[in-house]
Amino acid sequence: MLDGIEALLALEKFGTVSEAATRLRLTQSAVSKRIQALQQAVGFRIVERDGRRIRLTSQGINFLERARPLVAELRGLTAPAETGSLTHFSLALADSIAASWGPGVVRRALESLPRIGVELHAHRSVLLIESVRLGRYHIGLCTDPLTAKDLIHYPVVDEPLVLIYSALGNKAQKNSPLISIESGSATWRAVEPSIKQHHPELLRRQFIPVETFSATVQMVKAGFGDGLAPLGLVMEMGLGRKCYRELPAIKRRVSLLTRKTIHQLESFALLRDQLV
After folding, report:
1. Which of 2, 24, 102, 220 is the most exposed, fewest CB within 10 Å of its CB?
2. Would residue 223 be called left, alpha or beta, if left means φ above 0 and alpha means ψ between -120 and 50 degrees?
3. In sequence order, what are the residues at sequence separation of 6 or more whose Cβ sits closer than 8 angstroms to the Cβ of residue 37?
4. Which long-range contacts (CB under 8 A, 24 or more apart) does 80-87 make?
5. Predicted model pTM
6. Interior CA angle at 140 toward 12 and 104, to 5°?
7. Residues with Cβ < 8 Å from 196, sequence gap 6 or more?
8. For residue 9, is pLDDT > 50?
């Protein structure tokens, strides 16, 4: 039943079986079978057709609201007890952090914490947040999503975003496209209001959205436009200081996310402080 509830949560969030399957890293057939099995188990219809999409029925919505807070607890039955003795954490990094400063920072933090271990993972922020919420991971490190109010947020750093010049030139091309992470991402939602306020000219350009900041950098290097990316990734990729500039007032807040039971642990506090 737990697998079916997770599939239903993904369907509710993303609206289509194909997108839910992508986020869960399953086939569409597997997602459909899980939802069908859940529907048979509960004995009432939980989804219905809405044109080409599938939506939750009113009974399905009510069921999911009751089930949501129990999912993490159910996962905890097969995971190590979330008690003060927990010293090995599963930690998921947002992909842009995993591709830059994240792994090195975690390794250096652990050098000062010989009794604490970390199992490291990397995902897109939206999947990371849902996985922490559902108990798959103890901790997530990503751009702070204001919508995840059911999780504990602990700010780590405000990371600047930089404008990389097309073909790694020495100045921006005002008429060239702007390449950056897609508008539905946590980072873009976090920085777009500041861009509108402080650098509105960037939003008047043709915008080319991509799924990863690494793709942004590669497309900029090839000369397809200027790009907006986190400073840490740009430094990790070895770009020369003359081919980009920091954008004043444009930063993304990176935070640790966890559930209340983990946040209360002394071992988590030790790891958190070392990471900061």
Report:
1. 2
2. left
3. 4
4. 82/138, 82/259, 82/261, 82/262, 82/265, 83/265, 84/265, 84/266, 84/267, 86/138, 86/262, 86/265, 86/267, 86/268, 87/115, 87/116, 87/117, 87/267
5. 0.72
6. 145
7. 203
8. yes
